[in-house]
Write a structure and sequence with these properties.
It contains five helices and nine strands; from the N terminus they run αβββααββαβββαβ. Strands 4, 5, 6, 7, 8 and 9 form a six-stranded mixed sheet that branches. The protein has a three-stranded mixed sheet with strand order 1-3-2. Strand 2 and strand 3 form a beta hairpin. Helix 1 packs across helix 2 and helix 2 packs across helix 3. The two termini are 36 Å apart.
Length: 216
């Protein structure tokens, strides 16, 4: 998933009401392609009457990585904790000190979130991380009751599955197709006769637009 500014604005407002008492003015919201930070909270500083003040708060989320909505929500909450502490001028023991951890643990324990201090970049998939031009061998099936299925097949087991498909009387028709379409990137490469049910429109799109495999 990739987040948008509209998404950030919606969830900031909701989290502000639900968890921060509605007391946080909406900061500037921004997107980045940072490789090292999933999110960040920053502000500008100025000195007035011998006191340093913060203003121009900004929360950024990185779209460099491909995260679920739940993961992005946890990152946004992390940055909102930082913002809440800075806006209230609360002095913490460190950037992720006693105050921060107390607020984080309260959100996690009381509301079931999974806000963390840090996240290893090694376990977060990169957006668009599917290899370009990767070829998928796809088995398109239509059953006698009008249902449509698609399956990505491990090429080593294609001939075996072709023989099994012919023997299944419920299968009305089938086609072998090759494609580089990233639609299939989340499909497992099966070794047995398993497939994902799809709508008729999706089935016809691929059955019509992909090249037929002439032989296995």
């Amino acid at each position: 998933m990739q987040v948008t500014l509209e998404w950030m604005s919606y969830w900031f407002a909701k989290f502000n009401t639900d968890y921060f008492g509605g007391g946080l003015p909406q900061p500037r919201l921004a997107l980045s392609k940072s490789k090292t930070r999933l999110g960040s909270m920053s502000c500008k500083k100025r000195v007035r009457l011998f006191r340093t003040e913060c203003y121009g708060y900004t929360i950024r989320l990185s779209n460099y990585y491909d995260q679920t909505e739940r993961q992005y929500q946890n990152v946004l909450l992390h940055e909102m904790i930082h913002y809440s502490i800075a806006y209230a001028r609360i002095k913490d023991t460190s950037p992720h000190g006693t105050v921060f951890r107390g607020m984080m643990e309260n959100l996690n324990r009381k509301y079931g979130w999974e806000v963390s201090v840090t996240t290893s970049m090694k376990v977060v998939p990169r957006a668009g991380g599917v290899p370009k031009n990767k070829t998928y061998l796809v088995l398109a099936l239509e059953t006698s009751d009008g249902k449509s299925f698609l399956s990505v097949v491990n090429p080593r087991f294609a001939r075996q599955l072709e023989e099994q498909t012919i023997l299944v009387r419920k299968i009305k028709e089938h086609h072998w197709l090759r494609t580089t379409n990233p639609y299939f990137s989340d499909f497992p490469a099966v070794r047995s006769l398993r497939a994902k049910r799809v709508s008729r429109d999706v089935y016809e799109h691929f059955a019509k637009d992909l090249s037929l495999e002439s032989s296995l």
